[in-house]
Amino acid sequence: MSVVNAHTLNRQKLFKTALVDCVIVAAAGQLQRNSDVAYPFRQDSSFLYLTGCKIPDLVLVITQNKHFILLPKRESHRDIWEGSLPVAEIIAASGVDQVLSYQDGWELINQQVSKKRIGVIYPPKNFLGAFGMYTNPTRHVLFSSLKRRRPAEIVDIRPLIAKQRSIKSKQEIDIIKKAIDITAESLNAVMRGRYEAKFEYDLEHKLTYEFMHRGANGHAFSPIIASDKNAAIVHNINNSSPLKNAHMILFDIGAEVSGYAADVSRVYALQKPSSRQVQLFNVVRDVQQQIMQLARPGVTILELEQKTQTLLSSKLPALNLRKPIKHYYPHGVSHHLGLDVHDTADYHMPLQKNMVITIEPGLYIPEESIGIRIEDDILITDTAPKNLSANIPHDLLYYL
Ligand SMILES: [Mn+2]
């Protein structure tokens, strides 16, 4: 019996639940960095989930009887500069029936689309306000082209694919576990070699090497490597401070393997910590242990959040911290983890078996130059939650 391609299974499942005549999905496109230099390409996660292909500007079409991929329109000189598009590779990775040229593909789409119900992953909302970044334009481009062809209806399948992606297969869990194990080994190698590092970015570069040396694609997100007061800023990705005389260091890092992310945070002492540092660390560690145990089927992420805030708040008076909890803990305790580090899912839905989420309480006290976050990656099971990153030492003093 031949093994059915995992991406083919993902497409079949999506098509079955979408109740449309045809599903059409855009790959991401390359983005300009400056002049004629592009940013390193990263495939759209849903496109990766449905095809396994890491090539820009492809279009996937799923119909009842046939799955096919369209190649992008391309100037012939690009084949000389960049090599021709690897059609055989696309078929092997995705398991689609056919790869078509841009022209042949759109002729076929024209037949499929007019007066039909088509399922589309709607273009993302504007990210400029919340995240200060421009979104990849390919979904917008595809959406407009399809609209011009006057389908009977364009159905937004984002909720369906979010729900489907949030339940991980055995194969996906194995890949996430591999990303976590690579992160664990690499962090250990970096901390053991920390005496050679003069700046935070020396640790970052070593980590990049260790990730890739072990078979990861690289980082799943910009790593946070923050010593002392830098750790009090939640998303500090500068990693540029000298390590000389630093007391503690916070890592929020994750390797990416086959598109899947690990995401763990640890704080380690570089010199003997003060009793205050130990006190704050222990509070975060205790709360994290307690919240991890609650990550079970039927519980919502909102409930985990409320419980975290209650627990952390209850500890503040003894720590002599007088402001509301959100001053010291401004982020959320959990998110789904998968092809996106903050993975798509229905965040109101109660947890279910085979979801993978993070648990990451923290305390940040800029007034005292202290930031502590501890984060593990948790597999939801029928019974007790399984901590996939348990083998990364939690002990503040582990590397002293
Ligand atoms: Mn996280």
Question: How would you describe this protein?
Answer:
This protein folds into 2 domains: 6-165, Creatinase/prolidase N-terminal domain (Creatine Amidinohydrolase, Chain A, domain 1, 3-Layer(aba) Sandwich); 167-387, Creatine Amidinohydrolase. Helix content is 37%, strand content 18%. The protein is built from 13 helices and 19 strands. It has a 6-stranded mixed beta sheet with strand order 6-5-4-1-7-8, with helices on both faces. Strands 9-12-13 form a 3-stranded antiparallel beta sheet. A 3-stranded antiparallel beta sheet has the order 10-11-14, covered by helices on one side. A hairpin with a 2-residue loop joins strand 12 (255-257) and strand 13 (260-261). Bound molecules: manganese (II) ion (MN). Manganese (II) ion binds next to loops. The site of manganese (II) ion has 5 residues, from loops.
